[in-house]
Amino acid sequence: MGKTLHPGPQKKAKMPAPEHWVSPIPFGLGKIKPKHIRDTMKIAWDNRDNIGYATNIITKGVCDGCALGVSGLYDQTLEGPHVCTTRMNVLRLNTMPAIKPEILHADIDELRKYDSTELRKLGRIPYPMIRRKGERKFSRINWDEAMDLIADKMKKLNPKQYSFYLTARGITNESYYVAAKVARFLGTNHIDNASRICHAPSKTALKRSIGVGASTSNYLDWIGTDVLLFWGSVASNASPVSSKYMLEAKKKGTKIIVVNPYREPAMDKYWIPSNPESALFGTKIADDFYQVNIGGDIAFMHGIMKHWFAMEEKDYGSAINHEFVQEHVNGYEELKSKVQEQSWDEIIESSGVSKERIIELAELLANSKNAVYAWALGLTMHSFATDNISQVANLALLRGHLGRKHAGLMPFRGHSSVQGSGEMGADPFVLPGGGWDAKNVERMEQIWGFELPRWQGDIVGVTLENIVLPEDHERKVKLYYLSGGNFLETMPDPDFIAHALSELEIRVHQDIILNTSTLVDAKEAVIVLPAKTRYEQEDGGTSTSTERMVYFSPEIPGNKNKIEEARAEWKIYIDLAKRVKPETAHLVDFADGFDIREEIAKANPDYEGIQHLKKQGDVFQWGGAWLCEDGICPTPDGRGSLIPVDIPDLNKKPEQFVVTSRRGKQFNSMVYKEVDPLNGAGRYDVLMSPVDGQKLSIAEGEGIVVYNGFGVFQGTAKFVDIAPGNIEVHFPEGNFLLPRGRYEKFAGIPDYNITVNVEKAERYNARKDTQYVEKPIADLETEVS
Ligand code: SF4
After folding, report:
1. Which helix or strand (DSSP H or E) is residue 107 part of?
2. Where are the strands (E) in 382-511, listed by range?
3. pTM of this prediction?
4. Cis ω for the linkage preceding 732 (within 30 of 0)
5. What is the pLDDT of residue 780?
């Protein structure tokens, strides 16, 4: 039987639906909300020197703002225009001129006075540059000099001693693919990408539960499903146009449920700029919130299933879809006994949600023919993230909510193109078209025509730690080749990261802009290479959206602020290969972008069809409308697996809190507004429950200290509707509270949650002084030595 194909964009409901309005008072007057029209006017003003090109990017390019995916102004879900302020905010990266030379070549300490937001606004990197050991300024070099320096170093190193990393700032599938191929050609498997610090566990969990590591459904499935669940996701903030689909879903009777510690304002009420009705009156998004503890999701889902099994005892078939389970699922009895082992006391304590409330959701799902389960970083950034997500898959498999219209599992991805990074092989555990197993390695050796290094590459976090290994260690990383990214602002323990980056002999930053990590010293040299944006890449480029749509973005001419020396990223990797191994570099050479797409179609059979994408608007969806269609999973026996998982122990003492980080008005670590327009929170506000404030005698707006054995965060108390015992700080400001080296065991994502103490600032500081004074001298001496 053939796969069902996506039907393409559908018509929107014509009738307004006042029952979903936030208020009949237009434009949310008097409410804290984003000012979309004002922001858009400002962005147009910022782009006024290149307005024709900016307009062409918006109307012809594939958005580089998020992973929702849109080509020009039109998407594959709903008819009508599609644009948002996230897209507008990243627009300037593509249209701005070069950094002024007097700033670019100033003393490094002058550049270090800028933060990453200010550095971004300085403009683009105009030409290759170098800053050698002891030099105070970047100096201009030509491409040959820069590439020879990198290649000469690589020739001297064991390939286990250099590492590649690609972030997700609009990088195309073509660049990921060529980087993945060149890294292996050079002899290293140390290549990783930004999904390692966002959604890697979604892939490992879905692979083990249903055999495929991608969203099984489409946004269209939201519209008319019975229940749309968002787990640890602020979809309306991360991908603003998704709120348009949510409104359509609500008009079709879909119930939207959010599971999150914080009642995120953007999932409560939103004003959708591209929908006149919503822009005027707002949209009430969530029908219900379940404010689960940070790290309490597994217990919460055990509670749902525990009630399902209780329902089954009374009335067989009232909760479990037995027909689906019998035909398509393994592990039923094992999961059932694991769930039944859990006591309600444990479930309630870990989840922080009452039994009655858990039962409410259990019954809603039991009575729903269809549901779509979407999740994001609230589930993935934990040391038990793969278990979190397999537990979501357990719910879907028990109910048969998989592989058909209005039912499925959807990791809600963040960045445009991040889905494609692993699928192209820029990942130490995979190659295009499969995993790092002998069969796939041999298959890729046939296609690529060279032998692949037969050792396991390291994840990004480990490669960074390996920089400080002893000098003679085989895996001591001495050269890091970065395509974008800023580890100082994305990884735990930023102080260690700063030290590690400075211990590298050579660090290469292939990028569009400078960031704070570009300015860190290196033992021999920091080399900066100017990259083209996706809109400048010769022969265009493709990116894969959350729903597996592979969109073609054409090369867009007419940039008035063209960076003459910038190069397409895939071309730079080939140039590198030619310099390191000239005799055989023809094996990794490509004539043009079309040539790369031809090879991708062979290397990753899911991408059959990419070679036909040639002009603006061209798109195809890999895998068809639904993965696991009709319940048949791409596993050896065609069945999904129920995975029994344990409730994690967070080692939290009763007086402690668990902290997680959230994003405000920002794009990963790129901050666009110091105050979040959705809740009025500043970057150093600590979101906490007024219940906890009262317990600790902390007043709103008071200085507080969040600390643990790893770091101290000085902030201000902001009372919000969050589950007591949980607090949130902004990412990346709160990363100082996180130690390095805590990785999820299957996917290697660092854990971004931790237990902390919270105190009034004045009390903390007074106590600290007292303790210091009272410390015996001998102890102090021991510490100093
Ligand atoms: S929702 Fe995402 S894909 Fe759509 S315009 Fe906004 S940033 Fe771009």
Report:
1. none
2. 408-411, 430-431, 434-435, 479-483, 506-511
3. 0.95
4. yes
5. 36
Tokens at 269, concatenated: 């009420």
pLDDT digits (tens, 9 = 90+) for 387-396: 999 999 999 9
pLDDT at 777: 40
Task: Report the C-alpha gap between 407 and 372 in whole angstroms.
Answer: 5
Q: What pLDDT shows up at residue 476?
A: 98
Give, for 731, the enclosing helix (H) or strand (E). Answer: none
Beta pairing, strands 139-140 & 162-166: unpaired
- Report how far Cα 144 is from the mean position of its chain's Cα atoms: 35
Q: How far is the CA of 131 from the centre of ligand 1 (A)?
A: 37
Cβ–Cβ < 8 Å for 265, 406: no
Parallel/antiparallel/unpaired status of strands 506-511 and 479-483: parallel
Q: How far apart are CA 693 and CA 700, in angstroms?
A: 8
Residue with tokens 């689906």, as numbered in its chain? 324
pLDDT at 85: 85
Beta bridge partners of 329: 640
Q: Indicate if ligand 1 lies below 6 Å from the C-beta of 509.
A: no
Q: Structure tokens of 394?
A: 């357990």
CA-based angle 200:192:137, to the nearest 5? 130
205: how many CB neighbours lie within 10 A of its CB?
29
Burial class (CB in 10 A: 0-12, 13-18, 19+), 623: middle
Q: What is the dihedral of CA 153, 159, 163, 166, to 10 degrees?
A: 100
What is the Cα–Cα distance from 297 to 511, expressed in whole angstroms? 38
First-last CA distance in the chain: 72
Parts of the chain with a pLDDT under 70: 1, 27-35, 768-785
Q: Determine the pLDDT at residue 768.
A: 66
What is the phi/psi pair of residue 682, to 5°? Answer: -80, 170
Q: What is the pLDDT of residue 43?
A: 83
240 lines ligand 1 (CB under 6 A): yes
**3-class state of residue 701 by DSSP:** coil
Strands 434-435 and 139-140: unpaired
Q: What are the beta bridge partners of residue 661? A: 729
Q: Determine the angle formed by the axes of helices 355-366 and 385-399, rounding to 10 degrees.
A: 50
Atom nearest to 69 CA in ligand 1: 3
Task: Kindly state the DSSP code that residue 304 receives in the 8-state scheme.
Answer: H
CA of 274 to the centre of ligand 1 (A): 11
Residue 722 DSSP symbol? B
What is residue 765's predicted lDDT score, i.e. its pLDDT? 84
Q: Is 241 in the pocket of ligand 1 (CB under 6 A)?
A: yes
pLDDT of residue 784: 33
Closest CA to 479 of 569, 576, 566, 570: 576
Pocket test for ligand 1, best of 64, 68, 415 (most atoms within 8 A of CB): 68
